[in-house]
Amino acid sequence: LYFLFCLNATMVHYLFADNVETSAYGLQLSWKQLALLVCMLVSLRDREDLKIFTMGIVCLAGYVAYQIIFEDLGSYQDSRLNSIPIMQAVEANELAGLFCISICLGGFYVFFGETLRTKGIFLFLTCFSLEVVLRAVSRAAFLALFCAAAFFIVSARGVSRRYALFSCVLAIMAALFLMGEQHQEMALSRFST
Question: Degrees (nearest 5) of the Cα angle 116, 122, 123?
């Protein structure tokens, strides 16, 4: 399906593009994402490979979050975190989207990790990722996390629904704790614009 999307984007680019440079950038990004998706699907052979892949995403996001929080990586523009030297995630919205993925994957390991140590490490890394999303002050990221939480609760069945509700309440409490009054006012003013 994504291959058909890339073919359609290529046709639109060559036939209807008004601004060729902007269109070429998006087209190139789409084909790169398709190549990455194909490589990922070919390399993941079983659940253990998927586990290593997702844990790697969360750990790398935790490292970047450490650099942002403690080493002052990036700069602030209009009270939003920007200028992070990550390819394709330089602006606040792109950065927040990347860390939203890390929060969702890390949340899984917080509740369903194999050992208590794994759960603790991923809780720590997920909190780091949440702090970066809060510093980015991205409406799209906040809405994405709300939708992910709603889907998480609705799709859970049986005993796992209690885990889902507990994790969403825990995430809201963590966000409010990390935000403080200043960040809460910035987030509310961001939603009002």
Answer: 85
